[in-house]
Amino acid sequence: MLCCSNCTNKFFAILALLLMIVPIAFAQVLGQKREAVKNIAEQLVKKYQNVANIPTNEIKSILIRWIAYNYFVPFNSSLEGIEKALKLDRRIISNIADSLVDEGIFEKVYNGKFSYYRLVDLEKAIKLDYVHFTFEEMKTLLISHLPFFANFDGFIPSERTLRSFPKLPGYPPGFEATVPVFMYPQEVQWLVLQYLEEGASGDLIEKIERLSKKNAEIGLPSITLKDIASFASRIKSWKEEIAMSGGLVLEYLPILGFTLPPTSFEQQYLEFAVKVTDKWKERGDLPTSVRVTKLAHLPIATHGSLIGRDILIHSSDDTLSTKNAYQIAKNLAENQLKVYIKWFEQVLSDTQSGELKSELIEEGIYTYLVIFRYATMYALFLGVDSTVVDRALKINDLIEKNLIKKKIKQVE
After folding, report:
1. What pLDDT, on a 0 to 100 scale, did the predictor assign at position 205?
2. Angle (CA) 57 63 64, round 5°
3. Cys-Cys link to 215, which of 31, 220, 227, 267 (CB 3.0-4.6 A)?
């Protein structure tokens, strides 16, 4: 992640402009969604004359929407904040919000100053028919729950909400072929560890034979006792590392060098985060008491770093030129888009009849349709083959016509 100071300065000049401008439109959209929830609450109070007369599920729906649209503003999700914004009785809010905590849909968070509620299982709330969202609403929710670049004073980031978004069932077409590739190094790792601990035991030889037979059936390299012995002799001093590298460690740590930004980058990023936050406070998008305490996530740096990693590992040049890097990035974007096209062709066939299979949730399709659209935009802007991009745009349109603009009947 080394780069010249001139490149860094140019990057931050562009970043500053983006961070100042881009959030304005989104903050306005989010503000409109919050106002819409306030209006719903106001209409319900008028309709039922008294807050106590409003059906519990109606209040649950309002609370879930309100909490979802206030992820970055903890005070708005506190009892005091909800009461102030929605004009609902605090005792009733407390009872119903706590019942949603008991159901695992909310969690109660204490940030050192006050307690507030956070949405942690959006999919469950939808499946229980407490709330439903349109495509436009899901788009706003998905973007508003992406990891933010800084910690606000009083805001405790969590990825639980984002992980709880409704999803498409299964993985993209062809993904199953990649699973053995992920597992292969881990299977070899345990064989090496066993060899280091007990040598060429009968149990180890049997495991090696089973793995080789399985690999031969699916097209992976066979493995022999000689291979395992060779691996073990070369890294025998790493026995502790081998024993600790189960689960995600062997998958995650190799990319960590590309995702951890230099300290100098973090410090410059923090300075920009403070400037952006001050701008938001001036516009009234954040309370004046809010301050940036430290960096939380660096999604921009991480994303850029991973793109850089992918370009480097697909390059055969000793010295990579920007021209070649661009071509590799374009090819990767095209291949990525083709995966989404295949996936959404399946979704399209499931929605063209006007019915959904029982495992499909409309909001789950919305979640991934947002992702698909951004993958399409990314490819388009990179100059990917227009035939591929046009196919993606057509599928986007067809899904919108068959799902978003039509009444869909859920098939049990």
Report:
1. 96
2. 90
3. 220
